[in-house]
């Protein structure tokens, strides 16, 4: 019984660890795209947020249906 408990906890740990790795990779890739297309590599985090706030309403209201939230994200 104890061994099964350990295997279950270990499995959940590895699963959550992989989820964190996947999320980190996705955030890094998206950040790189932001810097590339907005030429934002010289901006601070605060300046980048200000820039994104300026365009957020426009982008979200003109986003094609295929890119809206009901689609799986990769």
Q: What's the short version?
A:
With 74 residues, this protein is an all-alpha fold. Helices cover 73% and strands 0% of the residues.
Task: Walk me through this protein's architecture.
With 74 residues, this protein is mainly α. Helices cover 73% and strands 0% of the residues. It is elongated, with a radius of gyration of 19 Å. The termini are far apart.
- Shape annotation: elongated
Report the radius of gyration as a whole number of Å.
19 Å
Oligomer: single chain
Number of helices: 2
Structure classification? mainly alpha
DSSP helix fraction: over 70%
Secondary-structure element string: HH
Q: Gap between N and C termini, in Å? A: 38 Å
- The average pLDDT score comes to 91
Q: What fraction strand?
A: under 5%
Main sheet makeup: none
Please mark out the parts with pLDDT under 50 across 5 or more consecutive residues, or reply none: none
List keywords for this structure.
mainly alpha; 73% helix; 74 residues
Reconstruct the topology from this structure.
Layout: H1 2-38, H2 45-61
